[in-house]
Specification:
globular, TldD/PmbA_N, PmbA/TldD fold, eight-stranded mixed beta sheet, 462 residues, 24 strands, single chain, 10 helices, alpha+beta, six-stranded mixed beta sheet
């Protein structure tokens, strides 16, 4: 993407005012985004984005600059602009650049940009038809298709030189069901760090059917009661609560500045023994998986909480300086326009020993949440508020009527401590996570779990 001589010149220019570390991030990205409504392709956007980011450290000072000018003069200018914010006395020498290689954990069979658009449209149309024909009450279906190929080069003054190709594919299906004056929505959005084969090898009919089924089921739902109840949270995207309310609190972005309730608590019991919480970027072809992070560190499996004990944090290169701890391969960014910081990949609660049937049978009364919706969280405190897309009453150990209007309100670290059953059916859900370094693909996951008590906000009427 850039020749080695130019890379060395850029890294040297970035250190010209006394920085002690410099880094270059080069990106060339191809994207396709299609939307299908009313059985027709409504929008078709394809694009290419390329640019370069340059970062300089001096102790605990970090400066970032980026440019879309790929001429030698333009790149050197960006490096010097970053350097001008640094005021040091000692000029360090670059370590010799050594190109690193690795075996990909995210193999790709078919690059999306080499697949004809008609094949992509056919996949979308089939998902549309499956959802639309599920039930007569389905009034509208929207199918969104996305694929991208991101080529990156990362080099730094410590001698690192590494390149990577990231290919991701995703489809989002939303179905709307209407009866009389009532309207309900269902959604499913699977994705993978994989090529076009993801759409042909996955059960897209199931995903489309689920989106429609949720919408139709909620038409018959009763208002959810309010109060404090045991809550059963199903697998896959149910993990979004702990991603938001606990995962962000374990990122060095918050921990290094003591802006997290988990700061300075390594070795403490922060959850029951049945809870192990993991961030693993090495899972083959998963949506949040990475070969290397955006600082060139190889992906790894980071056990954050093991049998209830806080074992570690997610740490990027800059915050490793603040904390005096090594990077965990967690430096990620949306694009060259963002400096990287500590972020999650595939974060999940490890499977336990209970079956889903045992969890439900052992619950005298409570709420079962099958699919979570969106929510809000305060990363500093862990306080959260999440909507539930599909919920049911649990009564005498059995699933009862569907419930609508449910929200879960609580505090992530406290909720973590109240997990009293963990299932054996681990599943992952694809999503996008926004933070300081932009929006990035992540998986959230867990098996079915039961929390002994959560405040449930419901709908008036019961």
């Amino acid at each position: 993407m850039l020749n080695q001589s130019l890379i060395e010149d850029v890294l040297t220019a970035a250190l010209s005012t006394g920085g002690d570390f410099s880094e270059i991030f080069v990106e060339d990205r191809f994207t396709n985004n299609f939307t299908l409504q009313s059985g027709k392709i409504e929008s078709c956007l394809s694009g290419r984005d390329f640019g370069i980011g340059i970062r300089v450290f001096k102790g605990l000072q970090s400066v970032y600059a980026y440019s879309t000018d790929f001429t030698k003069e333009g790149i050197i200018k960006a490096a010097k602009n970053a350097a001008h914010a640094i005021n040091g006395k000692t000029i360090i020498q670059l370590a010799p650049l050594v190109k690193e290689s690795f075996e990909t954990i995210n193999p790709v069979q078919f690059l999306p940009k080499e697949v004809d658009k008609t094949r992509k449209a056919a996949i979308m149309k089939n998902a549309y038809d499956t959802a639309k024909n599920y039930h007569s009450s389905i009034s509208q279906v929207t199918v969104r298709y996305m694929d991208e190929e991101q080529n990156v080069l990362i080099a730094n003054s410590e001698g690192k030189l590494i390149e990577d190709k990231r290919v991701r594919s995703r489809m989002a299906i939303q179905a709307v069901a209407v009866r009389d004056n009532q309207m309900e929505t269902g959604f499913y959005g699977p994705g993978a760090h994989q090529g076009f084969e993801f759409f042909e090898n996955s059960n897209m009919d199931y995903f489309a059917t689920e989106a429609a089924r949720i919408a139709v089921t909620m038409l018959d739902a009763s208002p959810c009661p309010s109060g404090k109840f045991p809550v059963i949270i199903d697998n896959e995207f149910g993990g979004v609560i702990f991603h938001e309310a606990c995962g962000h609190g374990l990122e060095a972005t918050a921990v290094a500045k003591n802006h997290s309730v988990f700061a300075n608590r390594l070795g403490e019991m922060v959850a029951p023994e049945i809870v192990t919480y993991i961030d693993d970027g090495t899972l083959k072809n998963e949506w949040g998986s990475i070969n290397i992070d955006d600082e060139g560190e190889k992906a790894r499996k980071n056990v954050l909480i093991e049998n209830g004990i806080l074992k570690g944090y997610l740490i990027d290169k800059f915050n490793s300086r603040r904390m005096g701890m090594e990077s965990t391969g967690s430096g990620r960014r949306q694009s060259f326009r963002f400096a990287p910081t500590s972020r999650m990949t595939n974060t999940y609660i490890a499977p336990g020993k209970s079956t889903p049937e045992e969890i439900i049978t052992n619950t005298e009364y409570g709420i079962y949440t099958k699919y979570m919706g969106g929510g809000q969280v305060n990363p500093a405190t862990g306080d959260y508020n999440f909507a539930v897309m599909e919920a049911y009453e649990v009564k005498n150990g059995k699933l009862g009527k569907p419930l609508k209007g449910a929200t879960l309100i609580g505090n992530g670290p406290k909720t973590l401590q109240l997990v009293d059953m963990v299932g054996n059916n681990l599943g992952h859900g694809a999503g996008m996570c926004g933070s300081q370094s932009g929006s990035i693909p992540v998986n959230v996951g867990q098996p079915m779990i039961r929390v002994s008590e959560i405040t449930v906000g419901g709908t008036k009427g019961e």
